[in-house]
Design a protein that fits this description.
Number of domains: 2
Strand order of the largest sheet: 10-11-9-12-15-14-13
Shape: globular
Number of helices: 9
CATH superfamily of the largest domain: Dihydrodipicolinate Reductase, domain 2
CATH architecture of the largest domain: 2-Layer Sandwich
Radius of gyration: 20 Å
Strand content: 15-25%
Structural class: alpha/beta
Length: 334
Amino acid sequence: MGVNLAIAGVTGAVGQEFLKILEERDFPFDSLKMLASSRSAGKKIEFKGKEYTVEELSENSFKRIDIVLFSAGGGRSKQFAPAAVEAGAVVVDNSSAFRMDADVPLVIPEINAEAIAGHKGIIANPNCSTIVANVPVWPLHKANPVKRMIVSTYQAASGAGQSAMLEMIRQAKEVLEGRPVTCNTLRYQLAFNLYTHDSKIGANGYNEEEMKMVNETRKIFDCPDIAITCTCVRVPVMRTHCESINLEFRDPITPEEVIELLSMAPGVAVMEDRENNRFPQPIDATGKDDCLVGRIRQDESIPDDRGINIWVAGDQLRKGAALNAVQIAEKLLN
C-alpha cells in the first residue's frame, strides 16, 4: 500500500532529483502532487509514464497528503510546512528552517534513524556538507570517539541550485570568449575561480555554512562537546562536494582499521589506490548513492597514532539532499 505524496519545489535541482530517486527506488505511492512557485504553476512533468501538472504551492496544497518532501527554500518551508502538518502530513524538509529546532529530529538514516520516531510532524534533512562528511565519520566515531574534527569543503555549484549550475556554464563561455563575466545567481565568478562560501559571516568570523556543519554534527551525533572547525569553499565543479577531514580520536587508530570500518559501513565506498595515486573525484561520485572515501592516512602531527586524514566525495544532490530525504520517507513507511 502506498501513500499520498507531495513534492514542494519539484522544478528545482533537488526536486528533479527527488523524482529520479523515487523512480529508481520504486517508492510506493497512491497519488503524487507536484508543487512549486507561481512561476512554474501549470508546467507539465512526465513521471513514470504519467503526465502531471505542477500546482502553485499554497497553504491549501496538503489536503489528504501523507508525506511532503520539501525543497522550496527556507522561507517557503517556514511559511507552508506548518500548514502541511496541520493538514495531517509529515514534512521532510531539506532547508535549514527547522534543523536546530529542539523539537525537530535532524536525521541521517545511517546514523540516527531512531530519531524519526520522535517527530512532531516535521523531520529535517541536514545540510549537504554535513551529510557528506558524517556518513563516513560516524562509523569511526562509534568505534573510537572523535575528539576533534577539522573540515575543509570543496563545494560544487550544485549546492547553490540549478540556476547556479547554469550560470557557471555561462561564465565559462564568457571567460573563453573574452567577454565580461556576469554574476546573477552567484555572488562572484565561479568559472576558473573559487571562493570561500559566501553565506553571512558571523561575529566569530565563521560563515553560516561553516556553523551549520558544526552545530548540525553535534546534534546528529548527540555529542555537544565534540570540537569541530570548518572552512567551506565554493569550487568550479558542476556537481558533487568533496571534503578534506582531519580527525583526532580518543584512542590510537590505524589507516588499516579505518579502511576495515568504512568497508563495512552503510552508505560508504572506499576508493583507495595509492599505487596509481587514484582517489575519489567528483566525477566518480556524481550520480552515486554512496559517499566515496580515500586518502586514508595517519596524521603524523598528532601523538600516539590518534590522528587520521580522509578525503570524501559525495553527490550533493543525491545523498547530500534528495536521497537522504527519500530514505527518511522510506523509514516513515516502515
